């Protein structure tokens, strides 16, 4: 408790940045405006009401020859509704019209605004009354924000000026208030045209198209944006999109996966990840050769990284724990730091794992200035040798030969947030930071996401929902452990972003889940209110 009370901005080194994170698809809405093209998530979130059986007999037999996977007969069914509450992100939290809510942390000032005043101020801005609002607006305590561009041109090379103008407004407004934008180039919203034309991330053509898009961003915004994140969580979209099938484009090919369309989960996740790594490296190379010297920014990539603890002390489980980490984080980190995939992956995935040519390996290796880590939770890992896994799990996940669980017997590893996967284990962040330090030579790390969600309970009052003690505890516990990893263990961590600034559209969970420091009232014109955690965070950043 004593430690917790001490937590302040001063618990972190000089120059350490604090911010909140968001993403275009989960926030913006305005899907028909300013020439915005359709994305794979638009299609995915709207594909409900369809029931069909999609036989993949042939696909699976072809795959067997090529990839040496046991023959299987499988089919998929698509049921109604990809998103649990049948919502979509056509409106999301309407951020395209209201990016200015990023100012809702009020700077410490001579004038103390009351709770009500602050809301009136926000509300004015929300309604587009800019000038009046700007009179009131003061700087945020946070000194940066993680923002995602929705701007991936649809492959034709045509740049949409309306989109550029919009993001110029956002970036300039942020900088005018002293807030550094950390910009993510890709957070899962691939143009549907590229999916239709050549299967998106499955085709190497994506490397060139992504590079063109990224270069456009460097040209247009790089004079002001100094922190670039090429990708958000390639592991998530490779596995969820091409193996489990729960995310766009919803491909997978295993029996028992009722929500998927055609795919090949024995090979596609690996191909996708390979093309992502090559895209990242190509973009990073372009940035370094043509822009970095003049623009003086840095480039990184953000990964979803759970921490894993062995289920038992047996060497089998310890090996399985390492494999689980190899297949999640090492999959990307090893190529980036050592030039090739982990040995455990080479051994277990064999011919299905793509190879880097010598030149590609060299391009990928070292192609980042910082590692973004989205960290939320910790699981146990356990050795798994049964073939049942291949039937029950998805192919790429089964390749690990590890089962990961948040339970030991009946005992959960930590308290639970609302999301089924999110268990609260603060110590995990410290262990993970040490793992990165030891394994990869203490690279610069930025925590690009950390947070927890509550259920969007329709039966409780807004006042009640604003009292989010659990979230305060979550962040203060994780931040304490993070501070320990820096101060006591010497880990090179230089930033922390809360996921998320606002409640928003949580992918397959739709609007059932609330991750924000700010509450969004879905029943009343999307008005925003600070939860207790927003006030706590602001105070934390004010002290020390
Ligand atoms: C982040 O991913 C995303 O970057 C962000 O867009 C999102 O809003 C935020 O999390 C909150 O969810 O359901 O058991 O198959 C977090 C990492 C990795 C967590 C995949 C969910 C699926 C686990 N995600 N994982 S399961």
Structure description:
- Helices cover 41% and strands 16% of the residues.
- The protein has 544 residues and is an alpha/beta fold.
- The protein binds ligand GBH.
- The site of ligand GBH has 14 residues, from loops.
What characterizes the major β-sheet? 8 strands, parallel, barrel
The count of DSSP E runs of length 2 or more, i.e. the number of strands, is 21
Q: Percent of residues in beta strands? A: 15-25%
Bound molecules: ligand GBH
**CA radius of gyration:** 23 Å
Ends: how far apart? Answer: 18 Å
Note the overall shape. globular
What is the topology, as strand order, of the major beta sheet? 1-4-5-6-7-9-16-18
Pfam family, one: Glyco_hydro_1
GO molecular function: beta-glucosidase activity
InterPro entries: GH, GH_1_N_CS, Glyco_hydro_1
Keywords: Hydrolase, Signal
Give the topology:
Layout: H1 2-6, E1 17-21, H2 24-27, H3 40-46, E2 52-55, H4 57-67, E3 75-78, H5 115-126, H6 130-136, E4 144-148, H7 161-176, E5 180-186, H8 192-198, H9 205-221, E6 227-232, H10 234-244, H11 268-295, E7 298-304, E8 307-310, H12 315-338, H13 343-349, H14 358-364, E9 370-374, E10 378-383, H15 388-392, H16 395-398, E11 402-405, E12 407-408, E13 411-412, E14 415-416, E15 423-424, H17 427-440, E16 445-449, E17 454-455, H18 462-466, H19 469-487, E18 493-499, E19 513-514, E20 518-521, E21 527-530, H20 532-542
Parallel strand pairs: 1-4, 1-18, 4-5, 5-6, 6-7, 7-9, 8-10, 9-16, 16-18
Antiparallel strand pairs: 2-3, 10-11, 12-13, 14-15, 17-19, 20-21
Helix pairs in contact: 5-6, 9-11, 10-11, 17-19
């Amino acid at each position: 408790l004593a430690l917790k009370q001490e937590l302040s901005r001063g618990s972190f080194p000089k120059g350490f940045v604090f911010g909140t994170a968001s993403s275009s698809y989960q926030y913006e809405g305005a899907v028909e405006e300013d020439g915005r093209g359709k994305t794979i998530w638009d299609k995915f979130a709207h594909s409900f009401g369809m029931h069909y059986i999609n036989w993949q007999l042939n696909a699976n037999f072809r795959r067997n020859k090529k990839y040496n996977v046991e023959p299987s007969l499988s089919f998929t069914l698509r049921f109604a509704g990809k998103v649990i509450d049948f919502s979509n992100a056509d409106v999301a939290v309407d951020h395209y019209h209201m990016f200015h809510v990023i100012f809702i942390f009020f700077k410490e000032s001579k004038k103390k605004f009351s709770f009500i005043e602050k809301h009136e101020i926000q509300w004015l801005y929300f309604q587009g009354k800019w000038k009046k609002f700007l009179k009131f607006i003061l700087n945020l305590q946070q000194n940066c924000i993680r923002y995602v561009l929705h701007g991936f041109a649809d492959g034709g090379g045509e740049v949409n000026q309306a989109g550029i103008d919009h993001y110029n407004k956002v970036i300039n407004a942020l900088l005018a208030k002293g807030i550094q934008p950390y910009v993510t180039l890709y957070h899962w919203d691939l143009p549907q045209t590229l999916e239709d034309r050549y299967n998106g991330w499955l085709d190497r053509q994506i490397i060139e198209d992504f590079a063109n898009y990224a270069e456009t961003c460097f040209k247009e915004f790089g004079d002001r944006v100094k922190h670039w994140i090429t990708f958000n969580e390639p592991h998530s979209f490779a596995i969820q999109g091409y193996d489990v099938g729960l995310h766009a484009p919803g491909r997978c090919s295993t029996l028992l996966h009722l929500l998927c369309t055609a795919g090949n989960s024995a090979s596609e996740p690996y191909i996708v990840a390979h093309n992502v790594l090559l895209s990242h490296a190509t973009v990073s190379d372009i940035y370094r050769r043509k822009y970095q010297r003049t623009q003086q920014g840095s480039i990184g990539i953000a990964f979803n990284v759970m921490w894993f603890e062995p289920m038992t002390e047996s060497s089998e489980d310890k090996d399985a724990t390492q494999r689980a980490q190899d297949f999640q984080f090492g999959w990307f980190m090893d190529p980036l730091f050592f030039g090739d995939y982990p040995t455990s992956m080479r051994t277990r995935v064999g011919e299905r794992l793509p190879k880097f040519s010598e030149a590609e390996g060299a391009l990928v290796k070292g192609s980042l200035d910082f590692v973004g880590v989205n960290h939320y939770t910790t699981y146990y890992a356990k050795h798994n040798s049964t073939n049942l896994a291949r039937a029950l799990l998805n192919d790429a996940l089964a390749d690990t030969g590890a089962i990961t669980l948040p339970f030991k017997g009946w005992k959960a590893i930590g308290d639970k947030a609302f999301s089924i996967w999110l268990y609260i284990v603060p110590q995990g962040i410290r262990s993970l930071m040490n793992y990165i330090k030891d394994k990869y030579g203490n690279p610069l790390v930025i925590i690009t996401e950390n947070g927890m969600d509550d259920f969007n309970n329709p039966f409780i009052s807004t006042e009640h929902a604003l009292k989010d003690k659990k979230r305060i505890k979550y962040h203060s516990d994780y931040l304490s452990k993070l501070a320990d990893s820096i101060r006591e263990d010497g880990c090179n961590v230089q930033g922390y972003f809360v996921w998320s600034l606002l409640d928003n559209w949580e992918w397959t969970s739709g609007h059932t889940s609330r991750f924000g420091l700010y509450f969004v009232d879905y029943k009343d014109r999307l008005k925003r209110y600070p939860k207790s955690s927003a006030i706590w965070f602001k105070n934390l950043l004010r002290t020390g």
